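Weekly structure sync, notes
Attendees: PL (lead), two postdocs, one rotation student
Agenda item 3: pending single-chain targets
PL asked that the sequence for the first pending target be pasted directly into the notes so everyone works from the same version. It is reproduced below exactly as submitted, 171 residues in total.
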Amino acid sequence: MRIIRKLFFKTLPLLLIVGAIFVVSSCFRAIIPSSSMYPLLEKGDQLLIKKMDASEIERGDVIVFYKDNVLYIKRVIGLPGETVYIENGNVYINGCLLREDYVENKDTYNGQFIVPEDSYFVLGDNRVNSKDSRYWPESYVKADSIMGKAIIKIYPIENIGIIEGVEYEIY
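Predicted structure, written out during the meeting:
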């Protein structure tokens, strides 16, 4: 038992250093600039973002990306090649209704978008207060502008927790 304890305390600092290097090299911190993702995220919340290739992105993921030199955080709704149709705030993917129970503030927006290959269609969860794919002149987020996926809310401390993507039911 003494040998195990001694080994543990000798290797613990090394494990902490390796873990810190992993986090620093594969993650970064972002601060939420607006209420467009309310109620999931509020202005001023801080997140740990996992750097990842866009090929790993799935519908429902909360991603961080650059558009026109501004850092945004939004939820992925439309994937490359899909048709996104919005009628009175209800979102349809390739003609099937996307169930979005997390959206508290739906709007009455109407529009149709065909997502180009190597691009994504994104929306804020707080639809009435979100500048997103519906309103940008270039509606889509290019895969190469995606910085990563939000994985953990790290501040405020009382709200620390994992940010999980949404698994959708499409009707």
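Discussion points:
- The chain is about 15% helix and 35% strand.
- The helical segments are 2-26.
Action: rotation student to compare against the earlier draft before next sync.
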